[in-house]
Design brief:
The chain is about 30% helix and about 20% strand. The protein contains 13 helices and 21 strands. Strand 7 and strand 8 (about 90) form a beta hairpin. The radius of gyration is 26 Å and the shape is globular. Residues about 1-15, about 360-375 and about 440-453 have low confidence and may be disordered.
Amino acid sequence: MHDDSTKLQPEALQVKHQGYRLQVLSGELRGREIEVLTDKVILGKSRQCDVVLPDESVSRQHVEIRREGDSYRVTDKGSTNGTFIGNARVTDGFLKPGDVLGVGKVQLRFLPRDQRAEILPSDKERFGEVLGRSLAMRKIFGVLERVSPTDVTILLEGETGTGKDLVARAIHQASARADGPFVVVDCGAVAPELIEAELFGREDAADVRAGAFELADHGTVFLDEIGELPKDLQPKLLRVLENHRLRRVGGTEETTVDIRIVAATDRGLREQVESGEFREDLYFRLAVVNPVLPPLRERREDIPVLIEHFSRRLPPGMWKPPGPEAMARLVGYEWPGNVRELRNVVERSAYLSPDGVIDLITAGRRPTGPGGPVEFDPTLTFREQKERAIELFEEAYLQWLLQRAEGNISRAAREADMDRKYLHKLLRRYGIDAKQFARGVGRRSGPHPRATS
């Protein structure tokens, strides 16, 4: 076994099927399914192989797959460009159902014969404004390309900062409703006593105010942080989903709306169902299609692409690409704030690093108030400038607030007159740990690449 190889042990690998399928995910044969019934096959470029893969990265006899009981063993045949299971290069390993087998640059998914075929990963590296070269993201793109033109309800899940809001907007732009409104409601940011009117509208003798569903007629409503929706409102949302009719708060007549709903959560909604916090019937009505966006640490090959993308949005001449050591730090970092954090590290490096090199750096903020000039970026729109200014303010304010409250979240929420759950949400968004502000706890030293996006 070579030094760069990994030997995988046959742990819980039983397929318990007679034969299997190889679904080709890339290369000249992309989209083809190869059914294998024999106990041993050799894959390679040579026409004498059992499975011929016409690709320059594939050796003449590249890899062997052999059945051993209920398991399938992969043995590299001394190939030039290597054999991979997932991201691990192997000379000898075992396949599990769903594994991606890399033969040189050709990727094949290993599936039992009776397992239904999956939607192929997209051959594109972006969906709207969402970028991703990794297989994990291209699988998401493949699903979104299929369902976006329809009116199917979509539930996006993923950690904070993974780009659920961008994905929701891209779904709208790829739909037949693209010319209609796109209305965002953050269910975690609106006080519980106000959320019903925010969604359904309000009317009384003096005034009538439309809610998000009416404002989005012939368009899309994006319900962010859907897991925060109060339980007494969940049946009303279910009713809108099922018959597209609603009644404003204080009203007596029903209104019909033509909307599509995309929801998102960074909490495990299925676990909330099991704990009784979220209605099961609403969950299944929302999760007709349920993409789970992978965290950045699970798609590290996308980090250089994203750094390039975010850097190109900065003013020309004010940034320099990371060198090999800086790139290794960026790719190796865990990114608890995901893509949002990466974007702000790029921006912070450009503005605050002495030489403008993109890197994990420790730096303060430039003055943005009466104490100094406000910095603007001519490459950004008004909305983007405003969003960035709000993010800079929110992060600085949260740190100041927690320092005053000595890390006590309840005290901080009281002083800010802020809902405690919403404060927790903001702290998660910006990757701020309240414990570091507790009395007697030393401030962290070294690189602190906290950022937002």
